[in-house]
Each structure stands twice: as structure tokens, then as C-alpha cells.
């Protein structure tokens, strides 16, 4: 796969375009078919009992697939999330960041689809799985 | 439907158990089959361009179905979101709160399912639709 | 809503384009925002115990939203299902047809989204809910 | 993973319990975390143009995750599909069977979750991805 943006460029893009959330996330690395991203878990992400809230896990899935798409098509294309689904599989472990592995399954003319497996850092069993779909604007 | 909690009790429950997000939401009213909830849109919910972010819309769907379930089964039961799906249909209008109408479709022994239609306040066309599933713990 | 096809035209379209399944379904009526369709339950749709199989319920949801879209945009546009989600809520009642009420939530330039509530005929509580998304080809 | 049923036992189970569809499917092999299954594509699965219909692809996803669960917990447990989601990514190739690779992501006390990647035989790019959830009855 020939990439349009590397990890540093994606990180700068996130800081510039999404300053309200960019501090929550870090790009671990680009992969052959996607990206590995980290949610830097802080108090604001937690629910009583120390688990990361569902919407924050959804946000990790969303940003991971989004950046995996931009890694291929570049920042000029404004991809918009059109929908997604998520299953919460296990309670995240307290005191650990979440690591999301996203892969692109389709990168079409108008739609891109990816899925994500999310784990507490250092653990094998997944905390959540998600699928996300994005609309790719024309004339990119 | 005989309710286990009314709007004031649900609101107090939200403040007590979810203090980090309770300020974002308000219960508009309970309905025959669910609840109407408001996301009080503020700068922290927005993306560039003034639209509410996807994870915040997901959060509104999640809390709405969750409270609709608690309205029926009461606060003793700890319902946990097991999964959900969402379609983002239109860009929310800038400067308007989001209103989510949730209805319970199933309230079973172990699973509860609801769906939600979300609109910008005062508009007819929906901004998003979502479905959410919750696990109901035993011995409630 | 100004419709592009009425129930008789949709029924003829289904017979012509989908002869392998058209005998399974009947259009009950068009509604303000969608369609009501019947799955004429026969032995081939059943699982042991007399319930309709999940894929057949999915098929009802798919065809209902599909025809609701064609009712608006006409037969020239070849809409393609890009995805969907379904929750199976209750066991269908043996010996009853399934009735699906579909409504269009978005009919955009490239994507259309609808949802469906499916019941055993004459019963109030839903058997399943589903959401379906379709890609609308350009230059329609 | 210690399995409760092997491929031959699963195949016999499918023939006995689901005779109406068992001829459509074949177990390719069990894997470390799931199963590989084949949909033996025939005329009855096709839509005009020679593509496999969406509900038939959904059926492959459903049976694959279902048998992957039974491979672990055995035939005594009656798992019921509670819901799922599917994205149709590419048109299946005419004249080729579909191969679904399912993996179990969670096998809990009351819920099991798996996902599936479906390809036309011999092709790399996926035709569909799906996620399926099953309710596991108590006292298994």
C-alpha cells in the first residue's frame, strides 16, 4: 500500500483539525492495512468503577478508522462518518490505556469501511469491536 | 406502563452516578414507551464547522435508552451497554440542542433493546438514528 | 410525499426483477414515510420449532426498505444494499405471517437509510427491528 | 482451545437440526479462534446479474459464528442469534463459492460475539464483513 500521509502527518492533522480531542489519542503506528491507535485514558473518560465509558471507546474506534482512511487518501478528502456499530465485550482494565487496531476493509469511490479491535494495553482479550463507515466526497 | 422511576428520580440518579456527564443531558419527559432527552450542546461537543461530534451523538443515544430502561426496572438493576449501532443522517444545525426520542422495543430477562431518533431541536428531519442493547443482570 | 411508483408498480417490479423471492413477499400498503410489507411465511422459511429463520427476517427488512426507496425515486435507480443491522427481539409466532413497517429516514444524493419494525401479524410486540443502508447510484 | 465438537460432529449437527439449509453450507475447517465455512453458491442464492443475495450472505455469517460457538460449548447449549450487523463491501464474483472466516471474540456466560470476513473463493478482497451476537441459555 502506498500511503498518502505518514504517522507524523496524521498526528499533525489531528492536532490542527480536532484540537478538542487530539490530546486524548496517539498514533502508535501505521500497519499494512490500517493503523494502531491509543486512547490515553484519563479521569474524564471514566465511569464509576474505573471503566472507560462507551462513547469514549466509540470515539477511539471512529478516530482510528478515520485516520487509517486519511493515511491512504490524504488530508484533502473530507471523509464523514456515516455510521457504525460496536460491541462491548469486556470491562476495560482500570489504569490501562486502550489500544485500537483498525483495518480498512473497503476504500471505494464513495464509501470506506473499516473495523477495529480494542484491547486494554498489554492484554489479549478484546474490550470491544467496532465497524465504521465513511462517506468519501466526490472529486478527490 | 407502570414506571419504577419518574423523571425527577432519573435525573437525580444521573447526577449521582454519572456526575462527569450529567450536566450535558436533561430529561425532557417520559413517554408511553420510552423517554425524550436533550443534549445541551456546548463548545466541548463540537467539531470544526459547528457540528456535534459523532461520539457525543452516540452518548445521547446511549444515555437515553439507558434511562428509559431504568424508568421501568428501577435503579437497583445495573444495566450495561453490550452494543449498538448508529447512522448519522444529517449534519446537526449549529446552535441548537439535540433531542433524542428513545423507545424500548424489548425488556427481557437478560437483554433490553431500544432505538432512538435524534433531531436538532425544532427540526423534523432526523440527525441520527441509533439502536442500543443492554444486559440486565440477574436477580433484579 | 410525491411517489415515483405506486404499490402495483412496485409489485410488478419485484416480480420482474426478483422472481426468485417475489412470491415470498406482498406489499400491504405505502405509507407517508415508507411501506408495510408481508412475508408470507411458508415451510421453507422455518427453523425447527416453527420460527422464521433470521436470514428470512433480514430479507423482509431488506426488501421493505428497498421498495420504500424505489417508491420515491423510481425503478431507474439501482439502489444497492451497503449494510444493515438487526436485533431479534422475540420468537415469531408459529403460523402467522410477518409484517414489516419500514420508514425512510434519509434519502440523500448517494445514501438512503431506513428502519423497519417487524411483528407477527396481529401482534403488538415486535419480533425484530432492523436498519438498512443503500447506495444510490449517480445520475439518477 | 479445547473444543467440544469437531468438524464432523458440527456437520452432523447441522444436517440433523437444520436440514432445510444444511445442504447450502460446508465446514472447511476449525481454526484456533473460530471456523471457516463455505456457502455452496447455487442458482437459488443469486440475484439478477449473478451476485449472491444479501440475505444469503447474512445466512453464511450467521451459521459460521453459530457453529464456531457450538464448537466450543457443544450441542447441548441452544444459542439463539440476538442480533448482528453486516456491511456489503464488494459484489461477489459470479461462479464462485463464498468463504466465511469467523472468529469468536467473546464467549461469556450469557452472550457470545463473533465476527466474520467473507470472500469469493480464491480472492483476497472481502465481499462482506459481519458481526453476530448470540444469547447462551443458562444452566449449560
UniProtKB/TrEMBL annotation, chains A, B, C, D:
Instruction: Tell me which CDD domains the record gives.
Output: PaaI_thioesterase (cd03443)
Its organism's taxonomic lineage begins at: Bacteria, Pseudomonadati, Pseudomonadota, Alphaproteobacteria, Rhodobacterales
| Coiled-coil segments on the chain, per record | none
Q: What is this protein called?
A: PaaI family thioesterase
Where's the Thioesterase domain?
49-125
One Pfam family in the UniProt entry? 4HBT
> What InterPro entries does its record include?
HotDog_dom_sf (IPR029069), Thioestr_dom (IPR006683)
Q: Gene3D superfamilies, alphabetically?
A: Hotdog Thioesterase
Amino acid at each position: 500500500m502506498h500511503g498518502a500521509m505518514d504517522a507524523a502527518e496524521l498526528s499533525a492533522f489531528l492536532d490542527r483539525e480536532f484540537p478538542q480531542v487530539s490530546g486524548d489519542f496517539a498514533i502508535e503506528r501505521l500497519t499494512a492495512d490500517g493503523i494502531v491507535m491509543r486512547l490515553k485514558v484519563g479521569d474524564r473518560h471514566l465511569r464509576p468503577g474505573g471503566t472507560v465509558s462507551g462513547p469514549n471507546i466509540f470515539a477511539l474506534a471512529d478516530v482510528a478508522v478515520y485516520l487509517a482512511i486519511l493515511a491512504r487518501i490524504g488530508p484533502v478528502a473530507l471523509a464523514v462518518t456515516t455510521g457504525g456499530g460496536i460491541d462491548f465485550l469486556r470491562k476495560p482494565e482500570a489504569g490501562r490505556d486502550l489500544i485500537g487496531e483498525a483495518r480498512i476493509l473497503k476504500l471505494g469511490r464513495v464509501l470506506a469501511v473499516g473495523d477495529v479491535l480494542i484491547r486494554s494495553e498489554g492484554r489479549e482479550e478484546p474490550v470491544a469491536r467496532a465497524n465504521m463507515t465513511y462517506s468519501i466526497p466526490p472529486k478527490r
